[in-house]
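TODO from last week: model Glutaredoxin family protein.
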Amino acid sequence: MAGMSPLFRRKAEPRARLVTLIRKPGCHLCDDAQAVVEKVCGDLGVPWEPKDITQDRELHDRYWEQIPVVLIDGEQHTFWRVNEERLRRALTD
């Protein structure tokens, strides 16, 4: 489906999505990002999970300079600052 025209793609139900927040302890931007993720995912009924970059070498190597990072269904959505409306649109469009 990835190469399919957007006109023919079926929209995923928000509850069928998964948001992952890659963060680290003591990061104020991560705390801000988590507040946005919790709000949007809570409003839409979308499951989300936090991942600690200090506990996963692969995540550390890949995202260290970008945290916090938000993934939607395993694909990078954004990093550093999370925009509530943009995240909401990505989960509902």
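Done. The chain has a mean pLDDT of 90.
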